[in-house]
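Form 12-C: Joint structure prediction
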Amino acid sequence: MSTRLEARNITKRFGGLEALRGVSVTAQDEILGLIGPNGAGKTTLFNIICGFLRPTSGAVIFEDRAIHTKRTHEITQSGIARTFQIVKPFSDLTVLDNVLAGLGCHIYATPRVFAEQYSTRTTIEPAREILAFTDLTKWADTLAGNLPIGLQRKLEIARALATQPRLLLLDEPAAGLTSGEADELAVLVRKLRAQGKTIIVIEHNMAFAMNLCQRIVVLAQGEIIAQGTPAQVQTDERVINAYLGH
Amino acid sequence: MLQVENLDVHYGHIQALRDVSFAVNDNEGVAVLGANGAGKSTLIKTLIGWNTPSRGRILFDGKDITRLPIWDRAALGLAVVPESGRVFRDLTVTQNLELGAYTEKHRATIQQRAREMFDLFPVLNERKHQIAKTLSGGEQQMLAIARALMTRPKLLLIDEVSMGLMPILVKRVFEVIGQLRASGVTILLVEQNAYEALQVVERGYVLENGKIVLNDTASELTQNPRVKAAYLGG
Amino acid sequence: MSIAQNLSNAMVLASTYILIAIGLTMVYGVLKVLHVAHAGVYASGAFVGLGAFNFVRPFCTPTLEDARLASNLAFWISLPIAMIVSGVMGALIYLLIYRYTWGKSPTISLVASVGLFTLIQDLLQKPFLLGPRQQPYPAGGAGMPRIETPWFMITPTQVLILFVTLILLAIVYVILNRTRIGLGWQAASLDPEMAAAVGVNVTHVIVLNFFLGSMLAGAAGVLVGVYDNMVFSTMGDVPSYKAFVVVVLGGLGSVPGTIVASIVLAVTETFMVAFAGSLMPRDAIAFLVLILLLMFRPRGLLGRA
Amino acid sequence: MDYFVSLAVFAGIWVVLALSLNILMGFAGQVSLGQAAFFAIGAYTSALCALKFDQPFFVGFFAAILVTGFVGAFLGLPSLRVRHDFLVLATMGVNFVVVAIFKYVDFFGGALGLIDIPTPRFFGVNNDIPYLILVWLYVGAAILISWYISKTWTGLALNAVRINEEAAAAVGISVPRFKIYAFIVSAALAGGAGSLYAHYLKSLFPDNFNFIESIVILSMVVVGGVGTLRGPIIGAIILRALPELLREVHDYRFTLYGGLIVLMMLFQPMGLLGDDSTLMRGLRRLFVRKEKVDYEHAA
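Section 2 - Result
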């Protein structure tokens, strides 16, 4: 396994509040789970990795290049895509156009952006493949905002995939899903792993995370309190305390 | 005291609560437990009136308050200690307390109650002219509790009181809640910190994915392995 | 002109800014709406004041021998009428418009507000109201004395403006800081949800808020109308924009900040005109200041980060 | 005859103005109340080219487009830093400042304005018909440009920026860059309209470009339907033609504009002809059989 992403000693302060305190995480070619109680700093870490926030100190290395000074769109173009905890589909575009927006990732910075139409046979074909892969083909022409939440979460994954990432960050992909939908989602994520993508998942649904992830990192109050296999983490005294109290 | 019947709550397409029914009796402490995202805070917000349920009824003292404006609920005797305190940050400690008793019109009564709060929380007395945002996290939490008590509420709703507090402060806050229970305040507590919460209440419910999956006395719940499973997905 | 004279002139200017901007600040504080139509309320206040003044003055003359005295009396009757009408107008603006646009995108409220401002201003211009021309508002100093010192001189009209502003500010101060509803207002502007949860009827607070703020704007309209001895339908244009400069400068929603910012802006303007002269009219300077301010200190000079 | 020609010329100019604001507001989601400023800059640039530098019309016309495009890029900078509602304030300020500069700087004619701007004559025809055709060719160009942008990746990126800036960045779109693009195109289109306006009117005064003109442009877009092509075009024609044709309406046109804006914001914030407006839904129901979508079975 090679190191895909390394977050080195990340600290993030908001005013007086320390959201992250010297957190170091590495992701190999794997499905890595990031769990922890509310306010533990998980989403903050995601926001730092994808460039929405700058770390107060520390570094983020993606495939041997430091990315923590880059801006979000550059980071996406270099191969990291994410989904959002509160879904942000392009709600008044169709599902297909949402995916096309992701496919444009490597065009937006080139002059082709002015000259080329976005909806042509050469672009629609790969977009439809992604829709088929995520089982959204049926909804291609529906406005994204009209989809129920389970499909919106899938659409976010589809849109992220369209940017051709090597690292995929999923922020609570199972939130609000029924257990059937969550199972489907797990199958999808495993398929992505089989394609060679590295995946980091923030998850509140513990059953889902424990079942899906190969390795789990537990954050609490801005620090890593445990990491290991799901079985190790589940029996870890500190983790139980962090969740249930003493 | 409080009776909740078949409550459904949606955020857009997301259903946060599914068919939730439960009750809190007079002079009783009840905890609602569950992992992140189980719907605990949504429940509190719906009881206060910050969320509107898509289905179901909320009865308080036998009166249907499901569609009552938020401020009228406060007048009926429902008070809340919201998540992370939410004190009025730019006002003084005293002003925060006065606002707690906003529904009370007599100045003398308000001052009398503020004095009681200062007796109960001496640390607030020391800082009564300070602006609330200069207080520490624990002190702000105390202020939020004191503010809620200013109305002499019939029912006190407490949302995630331990969140973001250092362990030592969590202990102190739960001591205070324990004292309040001992003095006969009816409390509905929503909490992630299950074991601490179960020590200060008589009964508990466990929420999972917006549904109530367990309902038992506090001592039984403490023993029940399913509580742990609800958090850690065992 | 001496520095002292300039300063005293600046304070008069600042008073009018304060009266207009406090209403905007109060609205922004609770609703987070940029209430452009406030300037329409200001112009309407001037119009109503003038109308009342002209209507009442003939009735005052037969009983009071002195025409001067009659005019003063008519002014003191017209001022509260203008304030009350403006206040009601403000409250109605909330009840009919912002109540429904609140909570949607702030742009929707703002665009609605711009539309309302356009509507009010155009209606004022119609012959059955103010008409297209400027109209005099000859109330003079309304009985105020002239203050003369070796360093500066304040005309009776200026005294009038300072006097009325101080009284109104004192009233607002007492309402906001010494009454229950004032405390509720402060709470609602910090956290409306939480304020409602402790029992503050947020709707009442907001209506009162609009009433008070619009009353002050109406008073400002009357005072400026008397000061310039002229009332016209588009008199709200420039002050409205300047009031936003003041509100942003003062930290959005902070009443003390607004007062300080009004004084800063008035003094800067007065001295720039007096000593530096300038390429552009001083109003344009205020606009430039605002644009730069929005870009570099969007929370205001005194605002919290 | 002359009356209708002039009506058609002005209608064309306002259609372009509405389309230009639509690119900014409807495509990129940036509400501007300073569109009259770009209009003014175009008009003055072109007029000065003719009056001070003796250049033929087309030189002035293209200079107007270039200059306003450049100024647009510069004035778009606040949109990168400022929240949406403050952007509205900032652009209002831009309008005031630009008018003030034209009013108080002698080079621009000051309050007396610029007069004797030549109207170009084409093919030896001694009336305004060729000019009218030119104006509507420009309208056609503006429609074509709007349409083409909406089809290209730029259009998709602008849509993404409008709907959600964070999500747009997360698919690799540089939000600041595309906002500035929108400002440039929008300003340049308005600038060209300014040039056509200046040479038709023959004289320019700063007050022609007051803040109220920006509001008129805004109401055309808002009433018609933000983000569509038909909306601004029809909005401009209705709001421009209606007051001209009905005398009573003309006296109250600003009351009408203001009232319409308020009502639209209260009841149809997406405009009369917007994609999800009551009118369009009704029309669609008339002509298209509605597809029923069954989410329950899908999910």
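Section 3 - Comments
The mean pLDDT of chain A is 89. Chain A has one domain: 4-244.
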